[in-house]
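Entry 14. Ran structure prediction on the chain below.
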Amino acid sequence: MGTGQKRNKLVVPQAGQAMYNFKNEMANEIGVANQIQGGYWGHISSRDCGAVGGQMVKRMIEAYEQSLSGNTQF
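Output, structure tokens:
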């Protein structure tokens, strides 16, 4: 999907750069960051993109659970 076709909107638009960095950090952990060319993800398989998204959700849930328990260390 091209940049002009993006339909997902962030609830907090100011978090855009942080989410972009977070996505790239997860791609690096999964091992697909070397396939990203200038922000273009078209060469990455759907399976790998799903793994990046899944890892992002897992991390966000962990952070939320820690905040609920009073441990705010992320």
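The radius of gyration is 14 Å. Will compare against last week's run tomorrow.
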